[in-house]
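Chapter summary example.
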Amino acid sequence: MRLPLTYNDLQPGDLLLCYGWNAVGTLQGVVKSTHRLLRVATFPLSVPIMLATGDPVGVGKGSASCNHALVVGERLVVSHTDDPTVVPIGEHVLGTRYGIKKLDGHWQLQCTLNGVSTNRDIHDVVSQHGAPEPNPSVQQGVVNALIARSHEVEHPRVCHSTGGGCNWQYASTYFGTHTGKLAAFRLRGTGNPQARQLAMRTSQIAARWAVESGTNHTTDTRYSNWKAFWSAFHMHTYGDGAEKRARIYRTHMNTPGGPPSSNSSRAARNEKKDWFCSMFAIACYHAATADAVEAKTYLALDAKHTTPMTLDGYVRSSSQWQLVGTT
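The structure predicted for these 327 residues follows.
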C-alpha cells in the first residue's frame, strides 16, 4: 500500500471513494444508527435474519462519511508536440549546389557538383531525431531541417455520476480541487488475469458512458436524488433484481452515454438512465462481467440499492479487493 495516494497511483478500473460529512454522510449516519438500534432491540432474532439474507457486509461495516464513489476510467492518450529545433543536415561545399524537392511524398536533398546530381532522402538523414516529416530549408549554403518532436502522454481520469450527469475529469484536476479524504481500492489482480481484464473492461465502459466535464458535450444522464435516498432502505445484496439490471447494463456496455432510461417516454426521446454515484460505479463493473457468477465473485452488490457507505464496507472486507492508498 502506498501512502499518501496521488492521482498517478490510479489504475484503470480502480474504485475511488470520497469521505466527508455532507448531506449524504449525515443521512447514512442516521441510517447506520437506526440499523444498530433495530439489531439491538430485536436481538437475538436479528442474527438469523442477517444470516438468512446473505448480507456479506451489513451497513455497519462501511463508513457513514463515505459520501461519493467514482470509477477510474480508461486512460486518455494525448499527443504532445515539443518546440521545433533546427538541425543542420548538409554543409556547404565549394562548387556544390543544393536543391530541395519532394518526391513520392518524401523530401529529397539534391546535390549538384560538376553537373552531376545526386538525391538523398532527408528523412533518412534526420530519422535519428525522431522527425516523421521534417520541414527543410536552405540558408546560406547550409541545408537545415526543422524538427518537431512529439510524444504521447497517458492521463488518468475519473468517471462519476454528478448533478451535471455522468462525466469524466482528469484525475489530476479532481485531486487538485477535492477537499475531503480519498481512498482507492483495486481488484487483487496479481496472478489473476480475469480480475485484470474485468478492471480494464470496466474502465472502458465508464469512459464510454461518461462525457468530458466542462465541455460543450451533452449528456442525457441525470443524477437521481430519489434513487440515492431510497438505496439506503433496500437490501443491497446481489439477487434476482440485481441480475436483471446487470443484464441490461451488459446489453448496453458499448452504448455511448449508457443504457436508456427505464421510463418508456424518456427512452423514446433517447434519454439515458438516471444514476447516483455508487450505482453508476457498480453498474460499470456489472456491465463488464460475463454473467452473474462473475458479478457475484467480484462485486456482489445491487447497484441500484447500494449506498457509498455500503460500497465502502464491501471493498474493505472483501478478499477480492485491496486498499491502494489514501490521501
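To summarize the output: The chain has two domains: 7-78+153-326, 83-148.
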